[in-house]
# Entry
Amino acid sequence: MDALLSALEAFQQGVSANNSEQVEAAALNALAAAAEEAEKNPTPELELKQEAAECEAHGDWAGAEACYRKVLVLEEAAGNGGLICKAHYDLSRLFLLIGDLDKADACARAATAAARQANVFPVLVMALDNQAICALRRSDHAGALEAASEAMTAVEPGRIHDGIRAGALVTLARCRMAAGDLAGAESDLAACKPILLDQEASSIFAGSHSRAAGWWEVTAGSRTHKGDLRGACEAWAEAVKRRRHVASLAQVSGPYTLAALARTLRHLGEAFDAAGKPEDGKTTMAEALRIWCELGLPEQGLR
# Structure
């Protein structure tokens, strides 16, 4: 634990000093320390989460759900609001992955309720962000915008929270775009561009690259809306590049990052078709479908 705390302190110092090398080194040290501690002293919750991950890797969605529900029971018995939130959040992500949107939304709302009790703003932002995405998937644009707006206002000031703020802005932009507020979406994109694109992010920071992928996805939607079909293809291609990189990272590789890649590839394929490049569209769509089917997910869920 001393090694982990030391790494986290070095990480914060690196962020404050804008020292990317120190940040990357500290992040690697923190991951190593956390992994060593977990291996030495695995908790029942951790063992269940590992079992859930194994189930997901083999397309055993019912098995993964059973594991996550056991985790939820344990966390509720312990009474830690943040961990209860995470248990509901994990269930929500699972249901969202397999296309059970009503259950995903219900678990997302339960996660948000637990996060409010925890009173830790990054946890609340995470829960509200997921709730907004669930609402978008259900075409509840008003609900999505409400959750995303609250997430944005929940982010506390300070440069060290720039990554959280940028992620909240991308989701807010996505929600504004879906609701038809193009100007609002573009304003949000402009506000987080200096954080996501103008600063170099370490290759190991999956969150930074995922948020950048989201920025390019919303940008693609903006360009499509304006009739810039070539520009939309370029934006979707940038998003695919980021999603592909994230899916290659050992610490996050698996069904969730691969599914995100497949969805972005699908959008790129559709953009190629709209831009009069059917062969490129066919190739890209074929890759998206291959990834999706290899995950054991129903084909209609990619649509």
Observations:
- The mean pLDDT is 91.
- DSSP finds 14 helices and no strands in the chain.
- The two ends are 45 Å apart (CA to CA).
